[in-house]
Description:
The complex is a heterodimer.
Chain A: H1 2-26, H2 32-56, E1 74-76, E2 81-82, H3 91-109, H4 119-138, H5 142-151, H6 153-163, E3 168-170, E4 177-179, H7 180-214, H8 221-229, H9 235-252, H10 261-268, H11 271-296, H12 298-324, H13 329-350, H14 353-384, H15 395-398, H16 400-413, H17 420-433, H18 442-470, H19 477-480, H20 489-507, H21 510-528
Antiparallel strand pairs in A: 1-2, 3-4
Chain B: H1 6-28, H2 33-54, E1 69-71, E2 76-78, H3 80-106, H4 113-130, H5 134-152, H6 159-190, H7 195-205, H8 209-225, H9 234-241, H10 244-269, H11 274-297, H12 302-323, H13 332-364, H14 375-378, H15 380-394, H16 401-414, H17 418-447, H18 456-461, H19 466-484, H20 487-502
Antiparallel strand pairs in B: 1-2
Helix pairs in contact in B: 1-2, 1-4, 2-3, 3-4, 3-10, 3-13, 3-19, 3-20, 4-5, 4-10, 5-6, 5-10, 6-8, 6-9, 7-10, 8-10, 8-11, 9-10, 9-12, 10-13, 11-12, 11-17, 12-13, 12-16, 12-17, 13-15, 13-16, 13-19, 13-20, 15-17, 15-19, 16-17
Amino acid sequence: MDWFENGWGLSLIVFLPVVGALAVLAIPKAKESLVKWTALAFSLVTLALAIALAVQFDYSAADTYQFGTAMDTSWISAINAHFHIGVDGISLPMVLLAAFITVLVIIYSWNHWPEPHNPKLLLAFVLILATGMTGTFVALDLVLFFVFFEVVLLPMYFMIGIWGDRGITEVPVVRWKIEMRLYASLKFFVFTLFGSAFMLLGFLALYFRSEEMLGYRSFSMIELSEIGAAGAFTGTFAFLVFAGLFVGFAVKVPMWPFHTWLPDAHTAAPTIGSVILAAVLLKLGTYAFIRIAIPILPDQAVAWAPFIGVLAVIGIIYGSLACLAQTDVKRLIAYSSVGHMGFVMLGIATMTEIGINAAIIGMVAHGLITGLLFFIAGSMAHRYHTRDMGRLGGNMILMPKMGLLLGFAAMASLGLPSLAGFWGEFMSLMASFSPLEAIQATSLFRVLMVIGAIGTVLTAGYMLYMLRNVNFGEPSEEWADHEFEDVDSFEWLAWAPLVIGTIAIGIFPKIVFGATNDAVGGLLQKAFGG
Amino acid sequence: MSAIDYHALLPEIILATTVLVTLVVDLMTRKKYLVAITAMVGMFAAIVPVLTLTFCDSLEFCTATGADRVLFGGSYVVDAYALVFKGVFIFAAFIALLLSIGYLEMDRYYEGEYYFLLIASALGAVAMASSRDFVTMIVALELVSGPAFLLAGWRKGDPRSNEAALKFFITGVIALALLLFGVSLLYGLTGTQQFDQLAVASAGVAEMPLFTLGVIFVLLGFGFKVSAVPFHFWTPDTYEGAPPPVTAWLSVGSKGAGFVGLLSVTYLAFPEVSHIWGPVLWLVALLSMTVGNIVAIKQTNVMRLLGYSSIAQAGFMLAPFGAAAASNADNLDQAFSATVTYLVIYAVMNLGAFAVAIIIGSRVGSYELEDWAGLNRWAPGLAMALAVFFMSLAGIPPLAGWFAKFAMFQATIGVGNWWGYSIAIAAAINAVIALVYYSNVLKVAFMDPVPQGVDIEAFESAEVPGPIGFALGLTAFGVILLGVFPGLAANLGEFSAQVVASIGLG
């Protein structure tokens, strides 16, 4: 299996989906089932390779990059950028998550096509997204990272804009009436590009400054982390670079106050678009904080930590309160993401082993649980033709299986112990009790911990509020006489893995920690020493 | 006087011959497609010596005469920089030719002179790349512009085409006048009009206000040619009124020739006085990208939109010039390389954008954006091509445009002072503004419903004319190739930047 270990296996995981996208585009529009099977086949092979990767992964050396290409695989020689990829314990769970979600989304699409019906284009976009997502998680070169980070924009823009919600919305301030999907897609595109433009400026600044210590200019994350830990980037320079990276990553996460694109995008997107956005795309931002911002600029990360922690907790409280004010099920779930990503960022802000492990398991759990929630919300909207909680109710009577799954997902989302959502919230609060000493803001973080704990109560509040409105009670007259098809077989196929994953990680968090623990330890060791 | 190096002049000789042969063929035969074929053959033939000159070292029959072939006492130089742009211009003219063949078939204004004029203009651009004194440069520049004035007014019966030609002509003449005035001032002060001698002589007179005035007038002249703000007002009208294939040539060939002139003048003739031209071009770059982008948002006509987009793109290309301003000479070659890289990528993607716009526009019978609504329903392939080129112009990876912007950011940040940082930040904000109108085109094509009363079936069944389709395929391939392997464009940039490094400043 030499070829597999020498970067070819990982390269296949990254690029097979895009090959699949081209194949799908080459198939005539009329052969719809061939389109579906081709897309599924490519995503399944990718998943199989990703699982093989996880099996072969050397967990005793989780803090090293494995299965990677050689560091000097040239890509753009003029700027010393390399095609350098590899996985360690931090990126492995993310790669698996992305591969899994892609397959599930394609299975779910089998009989849930959003209007206008165009499976060929939709599946091609899903596969391109898969390449962008996995590529971002395995890139070890800043230019490569940037390219993959941006590749996801265009397919997601089209997905929201073409297949999105056709309801009319009013643009804030200027009060133009415009279709939801058009407003949301443009907002998503512009916000993210705005962030990544500044991120790119930050990358370039690091590239030029690296010459002072290395003797040559480098985009390599590994080399930059090494010299970053050795104190190569200091002063105003480092502050400005971190600010650039922060804007780029925080928009993607999204952190309060950069979050405003998220509720619109999630609500307007077709079901599978919301699932991919929530389950994977949001993680690109948090992953980048762990992979790039902390190791390369450790001093700045420490200096910014209280600020990030405060924003994270504002996000938790703000997201929860916003949820309580929603009438649209999808919008509620979207705001809940703001809160959950707040917990993830709080964990990262503590810069401790527990905190960052919490962040990663929180990312995985949020991917599984919120993915499931969006799937269910989409399927329900498909049946009821509304997402308005004022009109819903009595779902347990109308569709008992659907109602049960919604209840399960809501419980998981509010952080019920023994389900996956618990670990991320609990551990990031625990880590806030004693953040990294260098931050010198222990008492602030303890205050944040208390406020965050109040946030978990609010989370329970809005999830129960949603369940009460949607699941419980008697069906209103509008639906009482309707016959609804309960969860169908494609939905079971797409959702069962998410349910199983949520329970498995809830009971055995070691599934994730087994990979991440050493990797996080190694990362912090290199960045902060001791 | 040494013997003339005919190998070095072969591209120009072949193009000049083609110019004459197309005229003769047009007279001799009624089969008009023969004229087009003659023109194509000429273009193909002209690229051969560009390649043999580039790879001269590894070819047996090629007698190398040192790194650079210097002709006519230094007035005409065939070096790496010149060869890169000869290649770009021949490619651009070739694409413009393909676009024209398809377009002229649909148009009633066919004349054999069209090809004659287009190739003459291309010859000017090719000569421009080698010009290293002001007289040669102005002759080349006018050879680019003169035929282009006529081409812009090609649709004689259309008042907008007449307006296009007239505006283009008048501003072109003003630009020439300003340029000549500046050149005469410089000649009067230094006694030379050859670039390498000016570079030496300028040190002695750099303090004189009249010299500054001369440099600024030269910059103003080129400002019109590259359609930078505030010398841009002719651009949208001309782009809208001229036949679209001509617009394609103007936006790449004519503008590119202007940029080559600007590169040669600033970096080769005035490297010692970058404190004069740097701040001026910094301001022009800032204005171009900002004004071009903001005005482009409101455009409803695709050709006007591409016009403003090309103004904004000119701003991005000028940014490295401005950044190199108040800095030391060691960053000049990097700024130069970035502009060359940008120009190469811009040429490919902008020609592609025109190719797809011409196909759609002539099928719909309109370049008004609202008439393109629902394009994805009746021509998914064309809609995809539209997405590829417009997103490349917006700079979204993995399409070539991302690296153009990347190289520009790299050069501006790399300068390491606030001239560079400020223009880089301005460019970053502008890249986001540009996304608004580029993505608006995609919104109309992919997300809006087909207008009522449109016969989709007629659109669906229409075929793409072969030559334009070929041009589209070629540019699309180029945009994706350069996007995934941007090293190719970066190497061309570095290759041509040798010319700056070799003049050895200090």
